Amino acid sequence: MYTMKQACEMTGMNYEALKFYCNSGLVPRVQRDSRNRRVFDDRNIAWIKSLSCLKRCGLSIAEMRRYTELCLLGESSIPDRMQILAEKREELQHRMQDIQDSIEYIDSKERFFEGVLDGSITYYSNVLTADGD
Hints:
5 helices; Multidrug-efflux Transporter Regulator, Chain: A, Domain 2; mainly alpha; two-stranded antiparallel ribbon; 133 residues
């Protein structure tokens, strides 16, 4: 069994976030010690790590709560969980394409600037007129 502090260290989550997750019902079946402090087992730790990944995937607290509820239903809820993850995968793929497009834009601007600085490209601007105004 692990204390809150140990759970935070093991999951990379700060104390306030973990407490919020517990209070929000995102970490089910957390036990309490004789002093009524939360204690976590290995399954709790693995679940908290999963929640962190779901957050990085873009799930809101409400979506994570729904996902948790579905998990508590067991195997019968697998199709619903798969649907949630498939939708997030698609969103992530769109975000990844947006990031790739942004990187390509930066790369092209760097090539342009380098060419202007080394004299191989004539400078032009999309915001200034030909006379510099």
